[in-house]
Amino acid sequence: MQFYHGDMCMQMCAVRNLGSKIFRNLLQICLFPVRLKRQSVCERKLQMNLLITLIVVLNSQPADARDVKPKEETYVPDYTIYHNVSQLQKDLADIAQRNPNYFKLDHTYRSRLDQSQLLLRITNFTGSRVSHNLHVHIPKVKVLLSYAEHAREFLPVESMLYFLHNITGGLVAPTGSYSDLFSRFILSNFDLFIVAMMNPDGRHQVETTKNYCWRGTSEGVDLNRNFDWNFGGPGSSGDVNDEEYRGKKVFSEPESHILRELTSKYKFDAFVSFHAGIRQIYVPFADSKSKKIKRKPHNLDGMLDLATILSTATVNHYRYGLAYNLNDYTADGTVFDYMAGKRRIPFSFAIELWGIGDYKGAKCFDLFNPRSKDLQVAVEEIHPLYKSLFSYLRKWKERQVIKALDPELDAPSLTLGFILLATVIIITIFVAIQNKLPQCLRVFPRRRVISLKSLSSTFSMVQLR
């Protein structure tokens, strides 16, 4: 009687997130012989022990995956400091109501449970273009920012609110002050689209269940695995209990539609998906196929240039680079890969704003968010990153427009060199043919040269007379 190796079967069955169908198949392989012959008592006992072990493994699979089950947290949010979903909606509504010329709050896009995703558009709505000091008109830079794709990451939303309050504060600041100049810079040069709450259902679940490990939507779908870029690859999961569950199909979740539809309607210059957990700036791509074939985005140099600047914009330095090089894992179906690969937005990033990464004894809320008493300092430290981001994008847009209007401006020294060379050639040719022209056609006709000796003789004769 011949068996497959029992230890190998057990190892295969213990693989994380193993589907029940695969499990049953492995069970049959382990329990039934390839060739049926007379069984010994020892062999029957071995089969029975293996069966019992497999049943224990099967029954030990949790209803939720290990990393999304609630834990006893080190600390939890104080909602007099952190914003819950209802407080966030109220604050954004208040900002839009008080500043209708600059802020518009849109509730059109909604979650599976019909909660608003809080789309905020920010710009000076009186004009779509701004003037350049060389009388060149520069279109406003269109930027799309996404927050709260993962329900347990509170910090990015708080950094967004701090950024918004800096803009509104500048509207009432003294003319010429730093706050005034910052607000005017943002409102005059940018057309910002901010999805303030990508995953309101998941966030509501965190707030009501106190499970600060929950990452997905109400269906448990990781929105950052639900987009149309290598969807279904090994850098995601088909198991509904896994925190990286990708959903049944690409764009299966209503919450994903907002970014797809906005990027279909508008031509954006930049997209950023904000996260927390570790200070890192991810440049596309993160997916398994791109890592295998070493695929790179079309504007890699520009993205790395901006990432370099952002990495040192704050007191806390950020690591940056191609996502599949930066991480020891791949991620398939991510939104920032989709924006770079499908939508071909010039700048597309996923930025983790805060954290030190996983560590021994870490729970969940503390992995992604600071203590309530430290929140203000954290968002203040992050704010310079926003400033550097927008400053770079404005200069980049200016260069793109000027280059499109006059490509020669991209290489002024070369153009000047050709002009000087042509001038020297023309002068040389002109001088060479000057003496061969008839006297009447010469620009500088030949004049008689009188020597001083002749002139002296002439004067002497006049005196003698």
Concise account of the structure shown:
The chain contains 16 helices and ten strands. It is of the alpha/beta class and 465 residues long.
Bulk shape: globular
Poorly predicted spans: 1-37, 52-66
Percentage of β-strand residues? 5-15%
Distance between the termini: 150 Å
- The averaged pLDDT comes out at 84
**Helical amount:** 40-55%
Q: What is the topology, as strand order, of the major beta sheet?
A: 1-2-6-5-7-10-8-9
Query: How are helices and strands ordered from N to C?
Result: HHHHEEEEEHHEHHEEHHEHHEHHHH
Class by SSE composition: alpha/beta
The total strand number stands at 10
Taking Cα atoms only, what radius of gyration do you get, to the nearest Å? 35 Å
Largest sheet: 8 strands, mixed
Please report the number of helical segments: 16
Q: Would you write up a description of this structure?
A:
This protein has 465 residues and is of the alpha/beta class. It contains 16 helices and ten strands. Strands 1-2-6-5-7-10-8-9 form an eight-stranded mixed β-sheet, with helices on both faces. It has a two-stranded antiparallel ribbon with strand order 3-4. β3 and β4 form a beta hairpin. α2 runs antiparallel to α3, α5 packs across α6 and α10 packs antiparallel against α14. The longest helix is centred in the C-terminal third of the chain and has 31 residues. It is globular. The N terminus is likely disordered.
